[in-house]
Amino acid sequence: MDSEKDLSMFTTRTDLVDDLSLNKKEIYEEVYEEGNAKVSRVFINDKQASLIDKKRGYYTTISFSDTTDHNNYSNVKNVFIKELNNMFSKENIKDDDTCMVIGLGNSNSTPDSLGIKTSENVIVTKHIYDLFGTLESGYRITSMFNPGVMGETGIETSDVITKIIDLVDPSFVIVIDALASLSIDRVCKTIQITNAGINPGSGIGNKRKEISSDSIKRPIIAIGVPMVVDAATIVSDTINYMEQHFSYNIKNKDLKINKLIPSSKQNYLKEKNLSLSSEEKNYFFGKIGTLDDYEKRSLIFDVLTPIGYNLMVTPKEVDFLVDSLSKLLSEGINSCLHHI
C-alpha cells in the first residue's frame, strides 16, 4: 500500500478504496480507534481517483472484528452514526432536508440482500407528511425505494433510480449496497461511507451505470459492507497467512507451551511483526515466495479466471451476518435522519 500500482492489468474485485494501492504520502489520512472499531478518513482527488478507477470524494472506512457481542455491536453502531453524521456535515445536509433511502441488491441472493434488508427497516415518513402536511418533531421527510437488479427487471438500475428521484425530488439520497473486497479479513467486518456514489455490481465484475451526484443532480451518500471475496483473494491471503504461520513457528519453536497445543489451535495472529526472510520464503514457497502481494494476486487471478474458477465466496453464516449488519445500519441511519 506504500506505492502506486497499475491496476489496469487485471480486474480488481473490490469496492473498497482502502483495499487499493494509494501513495499514502500524497493523501491526508485521518485515523482513530474507538473501542473495537478503527476508522480511516481519506479524500481522493482527481489524479488518485483515475489511478484506482474510483470517483473523487471523501471515503470513510470503519473496520471492526466483531458485532455479535452486544458491547461491540453498540460501539460499532455509535461509530457508524458519528461518521454518517460527519458525512452529512460535509454535504451540508440540514435537519429539514428530505431524504430517499435506496436499497440496492437482489433479495433472492443472501449476501446481496444487505441493502434491501437495511432499507426495509428505515423509518419512512413521506406518506404521513403527504397526508397530514406535517410530522411530529424530530422526524424528517423520508422515502424508500428498492429498484431490484437488472437481471430481474431488465432495466438499468441507474435509469430506474434517476426517474424515481426526479418524481419524488428528495434533497439528498442514501444508497446501501453489499460490496466486494480484496481481503478476507474485511468481509462482514468493514463499513464504507462515501459521498462519491456507487457503481452497482462493480465489485463482482457486473459494472453498471454509476449512481452519483453527477447523475442524480443532488448529494448522495453510499454505504456498503463487503459480503464476498473472490477465490483469487482467498488463495493469495492464505499464502500470506501461511508465511505468518511459519514465522510464528520459527520464532516460538522452543516455547514449551506450544508443544502441548496443536498447531491448528494456535492463533499466531495475536503476535505482531510476523514475517519470513527472503531465504525462508524461497525455502517454503520457491519462486512464488519471491513475488510481492500484487504479483502474487495477479498470477492467481490469471490462473483461475480463464477456467472459470475465480468464484465469489461468502461466509457460511452469511444469513445471520446480513441480519445483524442490516439491523446495525438501519438503526444508525434512523438515528441520523430522525432525531428521536
Structure write-up:
- The protein is α/β, with parallel strands linked by helices and 340 residues long.
- It is 36% helix and 17% strand.
- Strands 1, 2, 3, 4, 5, 6, 7, 8 and 9 form a nine-stranded mixed beta sheet that branches.
Average pLDDT for all residues: 87
Q: What overall geometry do the principal axes of the alpha carbons give? A: elongated
The structure class reads: alpha/beta
Characterize the largest beta sheet: strand count, sense, and whether it forms a barrel: 9 strands, mixed
End-to-end distance, in Å? 42 Å
* Strand content bin: 15-25%
Per DSSP E runs of 2 or more residues, the count of β-strands stands at 9
What order do the helices and strands follow?
A: EEHEHEHHEHHEEHEHHHEH
- Unreliable spans are 1-10
Radius of gyration: 22 Å
Helix content: 25-40%
Count of DSSP-assigned helices: 11
Topology, please?
Elements: E1 29-34, E2 37-44, H1 46-52, E3 57-64, H2 70-90, E4 99-103, H3 114-119, H4 126-132, E5 142-145, H5 150-153, H6 157-168, E6 172-181, E7 190-194, H7 213-216, E8 220-230, H8 231-251, H9 278-285, H10 293-304, E9 312-313, H11 318-337
Parallel strand pairs: 4-5, 4-6, 6-8
Antiparallel strand pairs: 1-2, 2-3, 3-7, 7-8, 8-9
Helix pairs in contact: 2-11, 8-10
List keywords for this structure.
11 helices; 9 strands; 340 residues; nine-stranded mixed beta sheet; alpha/beta
In short:
This protein has about 350 residues and is α/β, with parallel strands linked by helices. It has eleven helices and nine strands. Strands 1, 2, 3, 4, 5, 6, 7, 8 and 9 form a nine-stranded mixed beta sheet that branches.
